Amino acid sequence: KEKPVQSTEFSSTIEIPDYVVKYMPMVSMDQRQSYKNDFNAEYDEYRLLHARVENITRRFTQLDAKCRKLAPGTKEYQKVQEEVLKEYKKMKQHSPNYHEEKQRCEYLHNKLAHIKRLIADFDQRRAQAW
Predict the structure, then answer these.
(1) What span, in angstroms and rounded, lies between the C-alpha atoms of 40 and 113?
(2) Is 10 left (phi over 0), alpha (psi -120 to 50) or beta?
(3) Which residues does the UniProt record annotate as the domain OCEL (predicted)?
(4) pLDDT tens digits, one per residue of 87-100
């Protein structure tokens, strides 16, 4: 998980994700392979979570767009509001852990992007060394 780091200048807490500490710039091909293995181990989970979260988000975005085209207080507006409520209840029933899944998806997205960037940097340094 993420560990808080107390800043001396500010009273706020700055969150440094655990993967920033765990995955430092690479120095060897073995390390590169280890990072790649870690990336591959979590990529499928990320893709599944992303697809689920994206479907739910897309549906609410569509309903929101519908709402914005209608004048508040009209029958059509009320109908869309009821549809939003119905969708929300359905989402809570089928995906009770939606917020945790969304947070996990965002965490994995950032972690995998970090690992991918480190691999690309390592590969670029190796290519320049040739």
Answers:
(1) 12
(2) beta
(3) 17-127
(4) 888 888 888 888 89
